[in-house]
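Might you be able to consider the sequence and fold that I enclose below?
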Amino acid sequence: MHHPARSAWTGEWRPALRRLASLCLLGAAAAGLQAAPKVEDSMAQRVQACTGCHGKEGRAASDGYYPRIAGKPARYLHNQLLNFREGRRRYALMTALLEPLSDEYLREIADHFSSLDLPYAPQQPSSEPPALLQRGQELAMRGDAALKIPACVQCHGQALTGVAPAIPGLLGLPRDYVVGQLAVWKSGSRRAHEPDCMAQIAQRLGPGDIGAVARWLAAQPVPSQAKPAASLPAPLPMACGSVVPDGATR
């Protein structure tokens, strides 16, 4: 049955109902926007893409593959970010993250991680053969004159915790990471500014020596004061393009 009164009422109020519904939707949207949490705008928040792999605050443990970056010398970190961006180091994920970033922004990232003073995780217990560890210790502490290989301590500091402003520490790094980096230097897949001292050293190391020094370094405890030394006690044993005077650009 037809109900004229009902039809007239519905037709008269339908536009008003539509406007009311629209206002309700707008109000709900506005309330949602107001309730949205504020996003922290800090360097710690911005570098979450880094800490996703390198561990919380950049302090990766010694039982993985990714290296610790917290507390490393700022210029060293900046050099490595530039090397990834410019193809001297090859890792597609790092390159994709860094390609859009300016030199200055990379410097800010390096300064952020360099400024962190965080404890290291305990080293993993070693079950390596004593003879292998002894050879690794010889290479790290005394080098091999016959192979023209300087000791690690001659460049990376007597405590092997690095030297400011551009030489990294070697303790607290995963064994497989050290092996991998020496291998890619040896093959030429990783490069640094010429003269590339680490490439020259890696090319003189045989596979057994690479494994020995990596295993010995990975087995060493990190001292409680693990900051980089302020300076080297003696000149570097060989020219190294990545280590330049203060104030230089690399």
User: Anything to note?
Assistant: The two ends are 89 Å apart (CA to CA). Residues 43-219 form a domain with the Cytochrome Bc1 Complex; Chain D, domain 2 fold (CATH 1.10.760.10). The chain is about 50% helix and 0% strand. Residues 1-13 have pLDDT under 50 and may be disordered.
